[in-house]
Write a structure and sequence with these properties.
Blueprint (H helix, E strand, L loop, with lengths): L3 E6 L6 H13 L4 E4 L8 E7 L2 E6 L2 E5 L2 H13 L3 E6 H9 L1 H27 L5 E4 L10 H5 L4 E2 L5 E3 L5 E5 L2 E2 L8 E2 L1 H12 L8 E5 L10 E3 L17 E3 L3 H10 L3 E3 L8 E5 L2 E5 L10 E8 L2 E9 L1
Parallel strand pairs: 1-2, 2-7, 3-6, 7-8, 10-13, 11-12, 13-16, 16-18
Antiparallel strand pairs: 1-19, 3-4, 4-5, 9-10, 14-15, 17-18, 19-20
Helix pairs in contact: 1-4, 6-7
């Protein structure tokens, strides 16, 4: 019996560059299963305002004045590659966006859905007929509106809430929901609700020794869930030397489930700073971290054989 090679990444947050690298990962890393473990959408609109025959935009603290279509297209690519949503507009609409939260929210959802649909189309073009199994899961940050796009997808499957059969007798159990965060994201849940949700999914597992947990939230109190402590204004609390004080923010339910069920492998994301791999009992748990805003795709290659992990490698590129 041969080996199954998986490529796993997470927290792309709208980065076009990272998604294109993900789609190429199956060929580059010779992986037959590729997975995005949550948080696929971006966080902000970047207006590009038409004014007096030019386009003006402020991005990352710098105002840019663009006088040609070529300059605008290049800027849109820069914004898209770092996860933002460039949006051409005018001063009149900008006033409406600033004054009308409902209009702004509707526009944001439109741009999010547009990019998700573009990604799914690209995956269809690049992966169809290649014998690659591709799973892309929304995470706690992602609005529920995007789920409808996956329902129409061909090559890509949203594995949320499922136990999916993989080659060589392995199974993939997935959920992008998280314990509560300070931002109260769309798929945040109290620990007791998250625990119940995860327990329900495990009923479909045939053999945990050949099961892969794809859980967006990492297990609590590990090197995989350390994030900066925040004050009441959601600003990092600094310690000696001005460095952020780190605290554990992962899920107690996720850790309990891993320790109780002892899957072969558990894959996580959510906490960008906590790149690493550990053993929780017999389970290898991995968080590849995220550097999406720089267009860097952090990931993990994992080779499985029988009921063991033959090897893994954290990747960056």
């Amino acid at each position: 019996m041969g080996e199954l090679r998986i490529f796993f990444t997470t927290d792309l947050h709208g980065s076009d560059k990272c998604f294109k690298k993900f789609i190429s990962a199956s060929q580059f890393y010779k992986a037959s299963v590729i997975i995005v473990g949550g948080d696929i959408t971006g966080k902000m609109i970047v207006p590009i305002i038409e004014k007096n025959g030019a386009y003006i935009s402020k991005y990352q603290g710098v105002e840019r004045v663009m006088k040609s279509e070529k300059e605008v297209v290049e800027f849109e690519s820069i914004v898209g590659d770092s996860g933002g949503y460039p949006y051409r507009t005018n001063e009149e609409e900008m006033q409406k966006i600033a004054a009308d939260d409902a209009y702004k929210d509707q526009l944001f959802k439109k741009l999010i859905l547009q990019r998700v649909e573009e990604w799914l189309t690209l995956a269809e073009e690049r992966l169809k007929g290649k014998g690659v199994e591709c799973f892309i899961m929304p995470g706690n940050d992602d609005i529920f509106d995007i789920d409808q796009a996956f329902a129409k997808a061909g090559v890509v499957e949203n594995p949320e809430g499922k136990v999916i059969e993989l080659p060589m007798g392995y199974q993939l159990l997935s959920s992008g929901f998280s314990n509560l965060t300070p931002w109260r994201c769309p798929r945040d849940l109290p620990e007791e609700e998250l625990q119940a949700r995860l327990n329900d999914i495990t009923s479909g597992v045939r053999d945990f020794k050949k099961c892969i947990f794809n859980l967006h939230c990492p297990p609590y109190d590990t090197v995989l869930d350390e994030a900066p402590k925040l004050d009441k204004d959601l600003k990092p609390v600094l310690g000696l030397g001005g460095t952020p004080i780190m605290v554990h923010v992962g899920s107690v339910s996720v850790r309990s489930l891993i320790e109780k069920k002892a899957p072969l492998l558990s894959l996580h994301g959510h906490i960008h700073e906590s790149r690493g791999a550990i053993r929780l009992g017999k389970t290898l748990s991995i968080n590849p971290g995220s550097e999406y805003s720089e267009g860097v795709l952090r990931g993990a290659i994992i080779n499985l054989k029988d009921d063991s992990v033959k090897g893994y490698l954290l990747t960056s590129g």
